[in-house]
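To whoever is on call:

I kicked off a structure prediction for a single chain this morning and the downstream step that reads the tokens threw a length-mismatch warning. I double-checked the sequence; it's 386 residues and nothing unusual in it as far as I can see. Pasting both halves so you can look.
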Amino acid sequence: MIEAKRSNSKSSRQLSIVRPVCLAVIVVLCVIAWRPPRTFSQTSLPAPTTNPPRANPLSEGEHDFDFNVGVWHTHIRRIVDPFSDSSRAVELDGTVSVRKIWDGRAQLEEIEADGANGHWEGLTLFLYNPESHQWSQSFINSKMATLGSPLVGSFKDGVGELFAQDTLHDKSILVRGLWSGITPNEHHYEESYSNDGGRTWWPAFIATLTRERAEPSSDVAAGAEPMSTAPEDHEFDFDLGAWKTHSSRLIHPLTGSTTWVELDGVTTVEKVWNGRANLAEYKASGSSGTVQLLSLRWFNPKTHEWNIDFATPNVGTLGIPAVGQFRNGRADFYDYEPINGRSVLVRFSIWTTGADSAQSEQAFSEDGGKRWEVNWMTHYTRAKKP
């Protein structure tokens, strides 16, 4: 799974031309069917907090990307082959809309641009890690819909540097995203590649952004109508809106344990990225503590499959996407994850149980899918329609 993502990320980056506007993101658990954070699969949920919460729960650095919020005109120049002597480039112009989500822990960025090669759209998710004081930047483009390796880094003296490892021409390279020239109404973004361990950087994407409006319009924030007419784009429409949730979680999966804990909470789900994706925020509490998740599902038009990924407040990056399809009203998503030091097949399923109700479950298998142990079940009751 990881190698596949790396091999495909080259094309993703070449189309994502403007990380300045990069936006990805993505995240989910499956909203109505969210999946618990992987660390919760291995250990018990945190104990309830006995001390009063801090007025500002996020660490220093949470406001580094505040300048990015709003609607921007972007001019992009993409170098076709950064490591060659050729200066051949593709020029694009477009619009970038950025808004805060998840109580300021994240930003969602949606990009539309046009150039000689036609229309292009991208989605970027910026996530903040309060422990490392770093941001991650994950990107998906509308043609590939494949999640690339996230850029991760921080700001110093008003300049942001985020780094990642990737592959270009079948060789490993370093990628640097540089945010500079930041003023209230303009900023500059440049993504560069290095094939010599960071000694030399070759510009690949160069973008200048000029502010059009301070805040995205309400139709952008709510999720515009989808541009694609593929029926699969609407398979998750049933879970848009607000839901009351009741979850049961097996404390120690794959150990023979029969101890379960109960959690009650709320999930809200909205359309994003012109209907190609859904964004969900989940919060539930019980005797074992409180769980908060940001989740996203997005549709891949080439494979006709849905991807699900998620983030937790103290991690600040996305996990391994689960991939699957709907069949006969039920969706099953699969991926391999490390659980208790072992690689385990994970299945996440979701289905409707009525006009205003749904159910999901997570299960693990240690034998390649022959036997499954369910370890997380959630029942959803609609509280508010979209």
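Update from on-call: the warning came from a stale cache, not from the record. Cleared it. Sanity check on the structure: The chain has two domains: 2-27+69-218, 35-52+221-384.
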